[in-house]
Amino acid sequence: MNAGLALLNRLVKAKDDAGDAYGYPHVELFFWKPEGSRLNFGDHLARVIVTKLLADRGHLLEEETARPRRLFAIGSVLHFAADGDVVWGSGVNGKVDPQLHRFRALDVRAVRGPLTRDFLAARGIAAPPVYGDPALLLPALFPGRFARDAQRPYAVVPNLHDLELAQRAGMRHLVSPTWSWNRCVAEILKAELVVSSSLHGIIIAEAYGIPARYLRLSDTEHLFKYNDYMLGTGRKEIEPAGSVEEALEMGGMPPPVFDADALLAAFPLDLWSRPD
Predict the structure, then answer these.
(1) Which of 28, 53, 163, 166 is surrounded by the fewest CB atoms within 10 Å?
(2) Which domains are present in the chain?
(3) What is the pTM of this model?
């Protein structure tokens, strides 16, 4: 059994062992968590954003609903999905074997980009052409909470799998993806340019109008998710920098073209319909 399949089986078993945590039908929000006690801020934004959207509309994530559902919002996590799950803004992970995507029917409201939409279409699953990572909605969801405050020429935001490499290299102005989501956002907004191998480092910067450049520190992450995001925000495939120095020379990528209203309208609030 390969490592990817073994991980998937462990997660399915953990879900089965947990059973119905509340004892009543509810919406389970899925987001990826690394092993151990740490959170990865980009993935954790799924809970932050869904919780805030629900609160603004008079709902809670933990309330009883008409029937149990599972929601995927943010992250390259569709290989964890099963038949009947709901997708709002998530995407495919290019480094996962396509055979590990075991679903045959999904309720898709929005996806990260057209590459994910094409992947689903090839499996007979319809997805509307509503694109964008929900983290782009942070300025709209938290008006006045965060603001640009340029205090340094750049910030480096490594992907979680690149963090140790970046620390060993002694990179300056480092923003760790293991920090709290609000600290990561605040630190990113202190930079004039964001240099990032973390996709959500790029997304947060661009959401607040800060130029960003993808830094390819290693081959750990597949380019699929970066290109999916870029194409879903009206641009060409991503052009990486090979070092911080090259990133500073290249400068930021073209700004995203993004329809926040369409993504907000696609949010599956209907999942929280009241039980009979």
Answers:
(1) 28
(2) 3-137+261-272 (no CATH), 144-250 (3.40.50)
(3) 0.91
